[in-house]
Every structure is written in C-alpha cells, then in structure tokens.
Amino acid sequence: MNPRTPGPLPYRRLEHTSDVKVEIYGANLAGLFTNAATCLFDIVLDLEKVRETQSVPVSLESADLSELFLDWLRELLFLFSTRSLAIRRVEIASIDPTRVKATVFGEEFDAKRHCLKVEVKTPTYHEYRIEKAEDGYRATVILDV
C-alpha cells in the first residue's frame, strides 16, 4: 500500500477516544492541503452530494508550515460556519511553507441534502505534527468535535 494513498482516500482515521484523529497524505504541499480539505469535509458531511456552484478565494500567511496547515483547516471551518459553504474541491494556485493561495469550490450547505455527519469545532495542537517524508508530506491532527 502506498502511504500517500491508504486505500481510496488521501487520509485515514486513527483511533481516538472522543475526537476525530486523522493522518492526511500528499505527494507535495499542494496535495497535502487539497487532501486536508477533502478529509475535513468528508468527515463533516456527505461530500458526494456537494455541488460546485460557488467559488471563494482563500489567501493565508502564517509564521511557518505547522501554523499554516492549522490555519488552513481553521479557515475552511470558518467558511463553513459563517458562510455555510460546503466545500467539494480545492485548487491551490500557489503554496510555500508560509503562504497559500487557493480557490475553494462548493455550495451553500443544505442540511437535508448534505447530511451533516459530525460538527468539527477546530483542529487541535494535541498530538499534532506535520512532516516531510520520503514520499511526500504527512500531517496528523486531532479534530475537536
């Protein structure tokens, strides 16, 4: 099994007693951030039912890669909670260890159609790590639910 793609998804759920712990993979930083968005919204709702009727630009700058990744997840959750944007897909325009510019595609959340699975509050620092591996990048994060 290729560690970047454990089965059909670019992430895998890990055991955790009360929250959701995931390990996300990417061949490069753009892939890691794209797969993080897929992971997050696949956990939150029925991603297959989300259409691409809206696009929203996202631009973030952080002190380092570790903070940028968590800020990315926080921004996606912010768009979901404040603009009701269910995100289906991400296009990364540019990325480096301190900045990301992207466009997210999705639609307004509809509770009847999108089937909310779990409400994610925020990514946590507990057991969090992001690392460059031989075959790309890997991030482990616990999502507070």
SSE blueprint and pairings:
Blueprint: E1 11-14, E2 20-26, H1 29-44, E3 54-61, H2 65-83, E4 85-96, E5 99-108, H3 111-114, E6 122-123, E7 129-133, E8 136-144
Antiparallel strand pairs: 1-2, 2-8, 3-5, 4-5, 6-8, 7-8
Helix pairs in contact: 1-2
Per CATH, the class of the domain at 25-118 reads Alpha Beta
Strand content: 35-45%
Q: Given the structure, what is the number of helices?
A: 3
What is the ordering of alpha helices and beta strands? EEHEHEEHEEE
Q: Uncertain segments of ≥5 residues (pLDDT<50)? A: 1-6
Task: Classify the secondary structure makeup into a structural class.
Answer: alpha+beta
Give Rg in angstroms: 14 Å
Task: Specify the CATH homologous superfamily of the domain at 25-118.
Answer: Archease domain
- Assign the CATH architecture of the domain at 25-118: 3-Layer(bab) Sandwich
Q: What about the largest sheet?
A: 5 strands, antiparallel
Overall outline: globular
